[in-house]
Amino acid sequence: MTFPLSRRALLALGIATMATGPVWAQMADEIIEPVEISFYNYNLATAGQGHDATVQLIEEFMAANPMIKVEGVGVNVNDMGTRVQTDIAARRPPDVAQVIFSDLAYAGQQLGAVPIDQAVPQADWDAHVEGMVPSGLDLGKVGDKTYALAYTFSTPMVFYNADLFREAGLDPDQPPKTWEEVKDYALTIQDKTEANGFAGGIIGVQVGPYDWLLQSVILSNGGSVINDAGTAVTFDRPETIEAVAMLRGLKDAGVYGNISRGEALESMAAGKLAMYIDSSGLQNHLLSQAEGNYELRAAQMPGFGERPASPTNSGSGLVMFSQDPVKQRAAWELMKFLTSERGYTIITSKIGYLPLRTAIVDDPEYLKDWVDANPLVRPNLAQLERMEPWRSYPGTSYRQVAATLMEAAEQAVFGDGDVAEIMQGAQARAQAMMPGS
Amino acid sequence: MTAETATFAVPRRRAVRRAGATRMLPGHAAMILLSLICVFPVYWMIVSSLRPANRIFEGTLWPTAPSLENYAQALQSIPMGAMLWNTVVVSASVTVIQLLTGVLAAYAFARFRFRLDWVVFGLVALTWLVPLQVVMIPNYLLVARLGLLDTVTALVLPHFAHALAIMLLTQSIRAFPKEVLEAARMDGAGHWRVLWGIIVPNLRGMIASLAILIFISTWNEYFWPLLLTRTAENSVVQIGIQMFITQEGTQWGPLMAASTMASLPILIFYVVLQRQVIQSFMKSGLR
What we know:
The complex is a heterodimer. Chain A is of the alpha/beta class. Chain A has helices at 7-20, 49-64, 80-89, 104-109, 116-119, 122-129, 134-138, 162-167, 179-192, 212-220, 238-252, 261-269, 283-290, 325-338, 341-351, 368-373, 377-383, 398-414, 419-432; strands at 35-41, 68-74, 96-100, 141-142, 145-146, 148-154, 156-161, 196-200, 273-279, 296-299, 314-320. Chain A is built from 19 helices and eleven strands. By secondary structure, chain B is mainly α. The radius of gyration of chain B is 26 Å and the shape is flat.
């Protein structure tokens, strides 16, 4: 068999590819033969509503697209990056994977994820993203490329025990809007009741390197953790340090204890904690445990003084790894369905994540009835307009950079050292781990 | 013995017995306390598995409204039966295979002298210091190439031999009376007969203790099945239990119900072989 290209032509093509980066082939226009794709999903690795809803989504998709078979593979959320990397080495990369936003830069820059805005025909892309929250779509971008389509998604919420508010003489219809009010309310509750005032999954044990909630607090004060170009960390900016110092103030006032996320969550579920800030995705879990015990309510993320809060998001995007044009088309069809009106109706009503198509919350065909019956989701939806993306760090040490920030913040808030000095130290250590340093 | 001494012997024996019992009382009290401390977490697991979701954190010793709802939910949420069966198959297979390879290798190390045998034995012993996590990825790539991903076979494959079994059995065989083995050889017994007819029956205690250790450590294994399995039906019970711990909160009730169900086979295994376990552990000095 002869190859149509000469060695010289092949060499030229190789050099050109290396110089310009990979050229992504356009995906197939349609599926004309049966095709099977794999979908790595962390909800499938759990038991309960997240798993059942994902199975339903896959089954409905396959029923509507009989030529496409989807193999749903449950992968633990903390192991997704490692698992994808291992399967790439084993030459079995997933076709689609649910990747948390903090791992996105790594997936795009190191694991060879497909830039979907380049692989998907422009008209197809434009038609699909119409009606989606623009700030949600921005979450999938790393630099000038879009590697993910936002999928499961939540923002920070203050869950509060309305019964404890009443017992302390506070009005549960007026939840705290600022961090100063959080402190005052917590002090009042601790003074008038047996309960603790405030806790959160911002930093500390069991939060790990997931800095999305800390980023929310920092951004709400006008600070940042990384510059716009994504080349340098900014842990030592005055506004960033000030935000961490505010949390230290809560601890010094005796209202913010250094307890693990699990303990805080259990304490909230048991009715022994008045306010708890964490992901809106916990809503169904907290509701099930509050039922019959106390009235659970939710409020938006608190701000600094007059300045409204800038909530970030936790959650995941759908990332395409398939290099085969036909499988890419199948993967894109699955991604479209999962983020369609029907997809978000299942995701929101069954799992509790936010819909990135906000119009469906008032549409009787989709979520209206559910939202009417579950009004706790409203404050969460109201935050979407102000939402800022959870920024991920570039390079192979991205987790260590995030861990450096989280450890420094924990030390600064719950320790006795100088907040500014600790954050400046973290800045130097983290910057040394950034690419090009 | 005179009638007088006989008359006084009984009360004296009683007094001695009573004094002995009094002396042993603190020891028994301490043992009872320690037993309660050991048993309490198991009791709490079972009691928590009977509490409904909105009562899961109540501190009473017995649930105010006990129900089997968590068991139903656990059985509905994960394929518990298949996972338990897989775990039993994997644990039993690994135990049998590791004992088999361990006995054969140990016999060779203990009975044959060959060039650099101590180096080979040292290398085998060193593998004990290599954690599974270090070789997990190469093992995964090999299993993928063999087309065995997501199979129970692949869960067993990397555990065909273990340094601990080889080392312990080697030491036991080395300590075996040489005269007995020489006598058997003089009677015309070959290596195969010596091993299975004389050595193995006499090492029952050591083999039983090793079997229990291997079975329990395989039963509790988490990382290798986590990496290898792609479907819950082909996975093991430890992965199933972990499925109740999610980013959106931990479902304590079903988790405790699943943990209780997962503990039962091991508990039964222990209760049935209790005497053997304790004797063999004491003999071998294993803890």
